[in-house]
Amino acid sequence: MSAKVGSYLAWKEMWRNRGRFFLVSLVIALITMLVIFLAGLAEGLGAGNKEYLSKLAGELVLYQDQADLTVSGSQLGQSFMNNIRRTEGVDAAGAIGTAAALINYPGAEEPQSVSLVGVEPGLPGEPPALQGSQLSSMRANEAVIDKNTAVRTGLGVGDTLVVESTQGTVDEFFPLEIVGVSDGQQYFLQPSVFVPLYTWDRIRPKGFAGDGSSELTFNVVNVSLAENANAEEVARRLEAQINGVEVTDRVTAYENAPGYAEQQSTLNTQRGFTLLIGILVVGGFFQIQTLQKVGQVGMLKALGAPNLLVALSATIQIVTTNILGVIMGGLATFGLAAALPGGIPIIFDGQQVAIALFTLLVIGPLGGLVSIRYLTRVEPLAALGLAS
Q: Does residue 388 surpass a pLDDT of 50?
């Protein structure tokens, strides 16, 4: 009986003051939009730095030991590869070189900035092509582009792109045939173009013309393990047998990508403050509501209404207002997201969005706890005296 009466009182008051409750739901909707967009931005910026590294086929990443686990600061030579591949527990190893470059293509108004990644065909580090084929050889004038590059440029299998690269003091142009398209493989906040390692070494931007070195150099090596091999043991073995290297796992590799940790920390702090603001907004509104109806609550209690009925009525109002705001904010967010241009780094991950929505649904009752506690402590005689 108390539940029915409490529900009736809650809905009756909400309907009589529907404008006021709707405005609070709109505020919660705006907070919801901000939280979900921050979650999407954190995922998008994180993917921009870690997407390629997190999808490497090999379990371990090998750096120069003085590079402090930064890909761009690591420099390894071809002479390392035989020793790496002969190490017990190593199934395959692929060298990876990275550089920034510009690409031109038919219909482009201006060159597109990309991460130019050199990989060894058929070895760890080369992304799988979802369309077309893999790279054919170490010196082929071919490229596999990632989905982000395909979306931004409109290029596909069979098209030709031209890498614009500074060689010394001269800009040179290198045409490459696109043989495949992979999934999203962003690196360093740029879409990626994958080319054979020797081709990469030839066309990557250089401060001087020509090769300038008798040995091919690259940045890191991706190592896949033999069956039943222990990653930690193989990492220790590699560091012990090969001088001047440091070995880590994929997660540590992308967490040390430039700016990744700082981005995530900043955005998570913003999300935390936004949720705190939501708690204060909901709590402040219902606290004001409570103070305005102390006399009415006192009358109900004088007529025999238990604290459970009063608390239930307030809880229904809080939860309903909060759910309505979260639903409106979620729908508005995804509606706006559909209209955003493709270059904006926002990715709505299902798990992260679910966590954000669940958290937003919890902040309503949390914010209203103070007002519910106040209502249950109202003394009928004191409240009636105050009302009179």
A: no
- The span from the CA of 237 to the CA of 230, in Å, is 11
Is 367 within 8 Å of 280 (Cβ atoms)? Answer: yes
Could you please report the per-residue DSSP string of 162-222? EEEEEETTEEEEEEEEEEEE-S---BTTB-EEEEEHHHHHHHS-BSSSS---SS-EESEEE
Locate 33 and state its tokens: 């939009």
Token output for 261: 């940790």
Per-residue pLDDT tens over the stretch 126-147:
999 999 999 999 999 999 999 9
CA distance 215 to 200: 14
* Cβ atoms within 10 Å of 154's Cβ, excluding its own: 12
- Report the 10 Å Cβ neighbour count for 169: 8
Q: How far apart are CA 151 and CA 95, in angstroms?
A: 27
Strands (E), the chain: 60-64, 76-77, 90-104, 112-119, 131-132, 142-145, 160-167, 170-181, 192-196, 217-218, 220-225, 245-249
pLDDT of amino acid 130: 96
216-246 burial: b if 16+ Cβ within 10 Å, else e: bbbbbbbbbbeeebebeebbebbeeebeebb
CA distance 310 to 6: 7
In contact, 121 and 134? CB cutoff 8 Å:
yes
Q: Residue range 84-100: average pLDDT?
A: 96
